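# nightly structure sweep
# worker-07 picked up a monomer target from the shared queue
# config: single-sequence mode, recycle default, output format = structure tokens
# input follows
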Amino acid sequence: MLYYHNGQKEGMLIWEGYFEFLLSACFNKNFQVGGLIESYYNHNGFYETSPWKIKDLRVVIKELKDFKKEEIGTNSPDIIHTVTNLRNELISFLEVPLIEKKDVYIEYP
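# output follows
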């Protein structure tokens, strides 16, 4: 994920496997339009386009805050720990461009 701050790219590199675990733990069948779960569920958005602009950072942050550790999809304590920390780091990362009213993108190399 990335955004631009004073012309400089600010980013957070996330391994795709951890990202999938994270999204599965945030999944809600009553997802809101404009977040990551909508694209995750429909397999569109960031699955199809890179870079892909996140439509609504408020929705994404709410989805991340609704994270359910038991839904990660693995019993590995290391993965559960890593994904839980990733969720916390990602919330902190996304709060900055939300406050600064910056666009955030998901980009695949």
